[in-house]
Amino acid sequence: MAKKRRTGDKPVDDVKDAKGTVAGAASAVTASAIANSYNDQIRPLLDAVDRLRHLKVTQEGIQLPTIVVVGDQSSGKSSVLESLAGISLPRGQGICTRVPLVMRLQDDPSAGSPKLQLEYSNGRVVDTSEDTVADAINAATAEIVGSGKGISDAPITLVVKKRGVPDLTLVDLPGITRVPVQGQPEDIYDQIAKIIKDYIVPKESIILNVLSATVDFPTCESIRMSQQVDRTGERTLAVVTKVDKAPEGLLEKVTMDDVRIGLGYVCVRNRIGDETYDMARVEEERLFKNHPLLSKIDKSMVGIPVLAQRLTKIQAAIIAKCLPDIVKQINDRLVRSSAELDQMPPDLNNVADAVKLFFHIVKRVCNSLEKILVRGEYGEYPDDRFFHGTARIAEMLNRYAKKLPTQCPRRKDELFLMEEMQVLEETKGINLPNFLPRSAFHVMLKNKMATVDQVPQDLVKEVWEYVEDLVLKILLQHSENFPQVQSSCRRAIQSLMEKARARSAQHVKELIEMELVADYTVNPDYMQTWAAIMGGQKNFMEAVRNSSQPAKITLQVIGSVDVSHLREHADSTEQAFDLMARLAAYWKSIVLRLVDGLALHILRGINQLVENDLEVELAEELLANNMAGVERMLTPPPSTGTKRDRLKKSIGLLQQSKEVVANIMDRISAAGEV
């Protein structure tokens, strides 16, 4: 049975009411502390950056000051953001933040209720609420990086418009971990380190380094990373969490500053369990006021309200510091955009102007091709191997030469000299037995050529496809301001390449036919090779005739062969050996002619294309039909107008940005803040 309450005991409802009153008071205190950080000195700076963000000046490549939250895994980074924003973020074991979470806090005094919005995946926008924001972030994360434990550098942006929050932009990054757990990639540390460095390297970034009081600060990986990019600590503020778990020695750790935290320390107590954020602030104030050790820490270094105020002022200070460089970047981009607008193609007034410009473009194209395809110069494209023309064509020729067999081709399953014997049998005539029939040599030669006649065809196809692609890319590059004539230029190139392919195909056909017309060479290597092979004929025939000798014998040039199957054909083997030796020796001359002759043909064709054919073909295409092609150059394409509009818009944006920054610089100067 429950005991009756004593008269002096407070009713339960009264206790709840008291807690509610305390929570309400805490909320008012927190809001007041944050609101006080927005005084007349800070607000203009933040308004200027907000204006620049609204103008989307970052699209012009100009970095704006951002607070980047880093820390070792489970250091309490997300909890700090929760305390600042008053909303719940994803929690769990291991890495909770698996993608950069860009949190934009915007104070909205008129807001009846908080407005939260997620932006990710190239512009996708999802409205959410305080109750569902954690689930929404988890869903967006899973959509970006999957439901496993991997990470990604694709950010999610959370916009929080709420009464009483500080106007801050913070980026929460994945916690640093060195040992991958099950389901994580082996290089998880390297992936996280790269993401963190990408964010903290810009000098416009403020590094909010979250440290757990339970560890030695110098051993923290986040400290090591921040020191690599901010050696003096001038951009680094440290937040110490979990102070109630390790209060001993904390005062010395935050006052001695062994790790060079230039912007100082703030010790905080985050929400625990089911506490509301307002109750968490009450408990935080009580902890730092009453704890025997933590109460000794200066009050300017403790509490979430102090952190909000410090962040706001630090952000304002770095904005003021970065403003001169932002002004310079805006001016530089303004000059570049104006110069690019000035370099837009001129408005052509007549056909004569168009013809003059057309031949100027053709000359530039031919000059580029001469460097790339003839002289082997690639200074215009040092990092793109595709445009290193002579090197790519040389590679094709080398591959072609390797595809042609260095020795006379022979089927793998073919017994040695059996093909020669069959051909000799079918070409024999009424003549002296020790004469080698010339027709036998020609039949063998034709058979061998049939095995390789497709190889040179493949080479010329590969070369001219590459040359066509290269010429088109360079031509389209030099004529990018006149897309209205590019289709005509493309037709001209395709026609020119068809002619080149046809010439090369005919040349290959003639090369093959010439090899089949006659067996002729003055190459001394033929006789040397033939003599070397014939030098082993005596031993070879002895092995054939004497079954007691080993069945395998090694011949110069040919290699190891088996003669056991020839012992039944000893009478015809000697003549077959002679035929094989002549063809094997002659094959080297054939390959040499196929390689050298085709290579020289290709090089001549490329030279002819660059020096004459390209200009003639383009002129015929664009100057025909009363110069109908070049007349199209007189009508600017829609893309040119679009580019002009884009440049004008960029210039307008940069001019507005320049004005915004100039105004704030004037105000700062007048106030004596710089």
From TrEMBL:
<dbReference type="InterPro" id="IPR020850">
    <property type="entry name" value="GED_dom"/>
</dbReference>
<dbReference type="InterPro" id="IPR000375">
    <property type="entry name" value="Dynamin_stalk"/>
</dbReference>
<dbReference type="GO" id="GO:0003924">
    <property type="term" value="F:GTPase activity"/>
</dbReference>
<dbReference type="Pfam" id="PF02212">
    <property type="entry name" value="GED"/>
</dbReference>
<dbReference type="GO" id="GO:0005737">
    <property type="term" value="C:cytoplasm"/>
</dbReference>
<dbReference type="Pfam" id="PF01031">
    <property type="entry name" value="Dynamin_M"/>
</dbReference>
<dbReference type="GO" id="GO:0016020">
    <property type="term" value="C:membrane"/>
</dbReference>
<dbReference type="InterPro" id="IPR027417">
    <property type="entry name" value="P-loop_NTPase"/>
</dbReference>
<dbReference type="GO" id="GO:0005525">
    <property type="term" value="F:GTP binding"/>
</dbReference>
<dbReference type="InterPro" id="IPR003130">
    <property type="entry name" value="GED"/>
</dbReference>
<dbReference type="GO" id="GO:0005874">
    <property type="term" value="C:microtubule"/>
</dbReference>
<protein>
    <recommendedName>
        <fullName>Dynamin-type G domain-containing protein</fullName>
    </recommendedName>
</protein>
<dbReference type="InterPro" id="IPR001401">
    <property type="entry name" value="Dynamin_GTPase"/>
</dbReference>
<keyword id="KW-0547">Nucleotide-binding</keyword>
<dbReference type="GO" id="GO:0008017">
    <property type="term" value="F:microtubule binding"/>
</dbReference>
<keyword id="KW-0342">GTP-binding</keyword>
<dbReference type="InterPro" id="IPR030381">
    <property type="entry name" value="G_DYNAMIN_dom"/>
</dbReference>
<feature type="domain" description="Dynamin-type G">
    <location>
        <begin position="61"/>
        <end position="324"/>
    </location>
</feature>
<feature type="domain" description="GED">
    <location>
        <begin position="576"/>
        <end position="669"/>
    </location>
</feature>
<dbReference type="InterPro" id="IPR022812">
    <property type="entry name" value="Dynamin"/>
</dbReference>
<dbReference type="Pfam" id="PF00350">
    <property type="entry name" value="Dynamin_N"/>
</dbReference>
<dbReference type="InterPro" id="IPR045063">
    <property type="entry name" value="Dynamin_N"/>
</dbReference>
